[in-house]
């Protein structure tokens, strides 16, 4: 990770993984994230590096814009097209705005995989969901409801209003909220995956909803910001923060009681799988409904009618296991 942490923000970060000396790598695979400097994506980059080393003869390019905008990612995509990469694996800031640029990439023979946050089907060949969308939607409200035996008001702090994955998970959550009697979702606000904005949005929720019992943040930036705001506002024990987060970033809030539990898939595995799928496509695998593509040590990804598939179920972290994982990611 040190090679990533030293990167100049906005620059392309390239790690050449070569089989012999100065020989040029056979393949260039780009892992494009929503924005640089986010712990979740840096952990995914570790997994991507693992996959590139396992494949061999791969130059891995880890890159993204400085903020979570479609415009920033389009600039990155155009740069990668100019570099003639073999594959782009992207976590999208907007499902539709990236399509024209990614279509140009595919027209030039570049394999395109979306992962984590999807691209519309016409703009990619394969989408890797970190988990099943219905399972994630159910999980995030269940984490709140499990600590509300008598029900109560719950609010959602999402990333951007156009984030594909966030919107799908919230939609799935709303489908099953009736399964949790007494739990009422009173608001959804957006922090744009920026800590300061997410913090301010949480303060606004606390002020606007005096009976608020839980905040669900299905974003690794938002859940930390919300937990910090609840801590600073003296609301530990009154408002439980849950959602999707990194053990390394949430450990302090589990320990101080601001968060009783949260969930996440392993981002290391997600980055690993995205690169493995990209390589399988480069090697000639067909992206079509029913096909099985290799995720290396994670097994096979079976594609549905939209050429999408799920990696794994989300995993719950709490006081019983947080210490086992907080130093890993």
Automatic annotation (TrEMBL):
Please give the chief subcellular localization of this protein. periplasm
Keywords attached to this Swiss-Prot or TrEMBL record, sorted alphabetically, are: Signal
InterPro entries registered for this protein in UniProt? Bact_Solute-Bind_Prot2, Peripla_BP_I, RhaS, SBP_2_dom
Transmembrane regions: none
Domain Periplasmic binding protein per the UniProt entry, residue ranges: 29-285
Signal sequence bounds: 1-24
Q: Which residues form a coiled coil?
A: none
Q: Read off the Gene3D superfamilies from this record.
A: 3.40.50.2300
Kindly list the places in or outside the cell where this protein is found, as annotated in its UniProt entry. Answer: Periplasm
According to its UniProt record, which protein family does this protein belong to? Belongs to the bacterial solute-binding protein 2 family.
Name the record gives this protein = Rhamnose transport system substrate-binding protein
Q: Which organism is it from?
A: Martelella mangrovi
